[in-house]
Fold this protein.
Amino acid sequence: MNGKHIEMHGVRKNYRFFTLDDLNLELEPGQILGFVGPNGAGKSTTLRLVMGMIAPDAGEIRVLGHAIPAEQAIAKRDVGFVSADMRLLPHATLGWHMQFMKSIYPEWDGGYATTLVKRFNLRPEQNARSLSLGEHVKASLLLALARRPRLLILDEPTTGLDPVARHEVISEFMDVLRDERRSILFSSHNTVDVERISDSITFIDRGRIVESSNKEDFLDRWRRIQVQLPPGAMLPELPNIVGRVTDGQFVTLTTNQYSEGMRALVGPHVRDIQRMTLEEIFVANVMHHREARGQ
Amino acid sequence: MNIVIRKLIAKELYVNRWFIAGGAFSGAASVLIATLGKGGFNIGALTWLTTIIATGVMMALYGIMNERKEHALQFVLSLPLSIAGYVRAKMIGLTASFLVVWAVSCAAALLLVFVKDSVPDGLAVYLVLLCVFMLANFAVVLCGAMQARTEALNSAVIVVTNMGVSIFMFTVGPLPGIQKNMWAATPVWNSTFWTVLGCELAVMVLAFTLPFLLAARRRDFL
């Protein structure tokens, strides 16, 4: 199947105090989509919709070509899901879970599972209840990865992990992506992790998609321009300015469509033009959209 | 039945293995205790009842509520099955787990009635109704646990079903058609018996069916 791994069109989900609205999302084979948003933005709700755990009130969801939630049982044969919230069955050992997955998934790769057990320093005889948060995430990841699924859906998998565990987990994602037929939808509020592994990024805030683009495109377009204005001087009208902070004669402008022409427009008063980190872009983007929506 | 549902049913039997073993042992042991004179009979009967009721409640609570509370439900729902498939696996798996305890306990009690000379065989009629009632009671607890999404609602179901056991004993025992034949030398399967049994079976069928009609069609399962 060569179609998109995930398609969401006009999806809406209403709760009493929260609405996910007009959600459009696409994930191509071989793509890693970083799904970034603040707490309560709707990331987990979106991923649960994709997994068929909850049903949309409107819109269409297709995963690996199958309609969700109606055909979720077929679609999920080739989907690995890991969430920071998710726990394994408390009365069973990791070894039992591995046997359980092996009995369900014919593609289960026992050799790879053993490698991951060693790499993640896990013990198969350990009861799931006694696993730490980091071990739980790594164990869940092991169970998802050793099935060799075409699509990995990861809901904040690095949340609460120490830097070493985070490094181990992220490295494993990188390994997965050596196979270009596989894709990852990765939600997080940790932009450092997302910046490291994603090739596309979607920002979500308060139940709405703020912006979706290629990672390099985001990093290329967004700039912080620092200007020092002499007394009495005025800044010319500049296009695509999404943020402006004035401190005496110093003005810091944030643009989401930087071009060399902007430098020429501002003229000799430019002191510095800085690239922005993904975190800075994310914050500026969210704040800009909140202002635009009058929130 | 697809392999995931079959494996999930097997999972329930595995996860509940200690409940099953402990419950079955306790049910059979309490019948043995009941053979030890009048005091033993009272203690044995109480332990026997408690074993069956407590095993059913704990299986339903641990199997459904705790899975949700401990966030293991997401793991199960991430497997290749639908919500209806999950409900099916859960209902069959937990019922199968409970049935082992119930069957061992009830068989032991019926054996006692038919084997021990000091216990009249006529008591078997009431005992059969009590056993079926407890199976229906489990079905209601299971149905409640599957439907209810709060601990408060679950607790309410448990309180009501526990009260139901007392109500059964106070209402069914004194029924003329049951009471007058309770000490008979042979069981009397009269119309009162069949009417009560019919009511119990109707409740059981309803309780076992409702989750397939309601929980299985729930749009949001988390």
